[in-house]
């Protein structure tokens, strides 16, 4: 089991180093986290521009093996941990806010939001069963996504370069704050837009650039697939060309990921409908992730639920009281968001080996991805810290 190292070795600590290097306005929630040991603020202070390139899904293990001869690997500085759960909704929110899930309380792809009385797909800002996004129903997304955007605290001009189909999403608008959002349609355009921002103007800049192409391919084809290797090579070639294009601009380019991947074959998926006795003990659908599922248990069913999980599911899952995970620092350091407890349920099933767990709500398309993440294996939890000077 590999847990986040919020004391100086996680992606949250990286954001703390960036904040301090860019003379951020004080933030009590962010101050709970020390700077990154491998890249303290003093190492960033001299750069006129800081580019944070997030390659969604690029785990340390993948880069060290399949990508060992790459341009990205040549600039590898250290191995970091993600957050818990090791998933995009939770980790990218930490990149955007500079705090851990302990404070921002976006605890996975699906979350029970008591304020709305429904389970939400957090990144899509719409109920799990589908329908309109929050803003289209008249709900201000910032009433649910309450952590302050990190961009609003920095003493620098801030930019977010993000895929065109999500750049103006409810989630992005709420989390990008005062940053100038710029869309792109394909990978070459991502790097050309960042290069243009770097070269335009003499003011100090922080540029957050994001691509999900690696993640999307890994989900569809798996981490050992030739399709993923081709996608990685495309990203790596674009990265190398980009470094050449911005040479001499006094720019520090930090590439990192939100999580890594494992492969999970269909037989390794525990489907809740095959455990009707367990399903009857739940008062809500499973929340969180297929690799880390939050369970909301019917009143009076705790003992029976624990017994079932520890006997019938012991081969594939470890059972924890969610309150213990909060107390033991799985979600971060410092005071917890008042909503955190209700968003992680009564219990958490952390899946072992390559197992996942899934329930299906009425009308939900039945589709399982081959590549998965969210758990506490080394392949999911560890991400590369890649640092290049230009």
What does this entry look like structurally?
By secondary structure, the chain is α/β, with parallel strands linked by helices. It has 2 domains: 11-263 and 376-389, 3-Layer(aba) Sandwich (Alkaline Phosphatase, subunit A), CATH 3.40.720.10; 266-369, Gyrase A, domain 2 (2-Layer Sandwich). It contains 14 helices and 18 strands. The protein has helices spanning 11-21, 60-65, 71-74, 88-97, 101-104, 170-176, 187-199, 213-221, 226-245, 276-280, 302-312, 322-327, 340-343, 378-381; strands at 49-55, 76-81, 110-113, 118-121, 126-127, 157-163, 180-184, 205-211, 251-256, 262-263, 269-271, 287-288, 292-295, 317-321, 347-351, 356-358, 371-372, 382-389. The strands form 5 sheets. It has a 7-stranded mixed β-sheet with strand order 2-18-9-1-8-6-7. It has a 4-stranded antiparallel β-sheet with strand order 12-13-15-14. Helix 8 (213-221) packs antiparallel against helix 9. It is globular, with a radius of gyration of 20 Å. 48% of the residues are buried. The model has no long low-confidence stretch (mean pLDDT 96).
Outline of the structure:
This protein is α/β, with parallel strands linked by helices and 390 residues long. Helices cover 29% and strands 21% of the residues.
Annotation keywords:
seven-stranded mixed sheet, 2 domains, alpha/beta, 29% helix, Gyrase A, domain 2, 21% strand, globular
């Amino acid at each position: 089991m590999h847990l986040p190292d919020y004391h100086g070795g996680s992606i949250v600590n990286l954001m703390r180093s960036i904040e301090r290097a860019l003379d951020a306005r004080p933030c009590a929630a962010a101050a709970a986290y020390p700077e990154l040991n491998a890249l303290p603020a003093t190492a960033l202070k001299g750069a006129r521009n800081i580019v944070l390139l997030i390659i969604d899904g690029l785990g340390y293990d993948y880069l060290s093996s399949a990508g060992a001869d790459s341009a990205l690997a040549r600039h590898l500085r250290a191995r970091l941990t993600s957050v818990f759960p090791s998933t995009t909704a939770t980790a990218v929110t930490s990149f955007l806010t500079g705090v851990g899930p302990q404070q921002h309380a976006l605890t996975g792809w699906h979350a029970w939001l008591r304020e709305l009385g429904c389970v939400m797909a957090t990144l899509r800002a719409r109920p799990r069963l589908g329908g309109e996004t929050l803003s289209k129903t008249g709900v201000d997304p910032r009433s649910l996504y309450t952590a302050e955007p990190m961009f609003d605290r920095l003493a620098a001009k801030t930019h977010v370069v993000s895929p065109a189909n999500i750049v103006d999403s409810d989630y992005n608008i709420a989390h990008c704050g005062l940053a100038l959002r710029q869309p792109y349609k394909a990978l070459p355009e991502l790097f050309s837009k960042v290069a243009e921002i770097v070269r335009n103007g003499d003011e100090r800049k922080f540029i957050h650039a994001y691509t999900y192409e690696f993640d999307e391919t890994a989900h569809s084809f798996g981490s050992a697939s030739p399709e993923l290797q081709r996608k990685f090579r495309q990203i790596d070639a674009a990265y190398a060309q980009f470094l050449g294009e911005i040479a001499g601009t006094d720019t520090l380019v930090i590439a990192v990921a939100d999580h890594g991947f494992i492969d999970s074959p269909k037989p390794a998926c525990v489907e809740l409908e095959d455990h009707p006795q367990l399903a009857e003990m739940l008062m809500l659908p499973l929340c969180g992730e297929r690799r880390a599922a939050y369970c909301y248990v019917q009143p009076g069913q705790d003992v029976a639920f624990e017994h079932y999980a520890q006997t019938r599911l012991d081969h594939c899952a470890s059972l924890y009281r969610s309150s213990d995970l909060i107390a033991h620092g799985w979600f971060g350091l410092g005071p917890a968001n008042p909503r955190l407890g209700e968003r992680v349920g009564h219990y958490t099933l952390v899946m072992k080996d390559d197992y996942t767990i899934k329930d299906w709500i009425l009308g939900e398309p039945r589709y399982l991805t081959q590549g998965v993440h969210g758990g506490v294996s080394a392949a999911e939890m560890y991400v590369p810290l890649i640092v290049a000077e230009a």
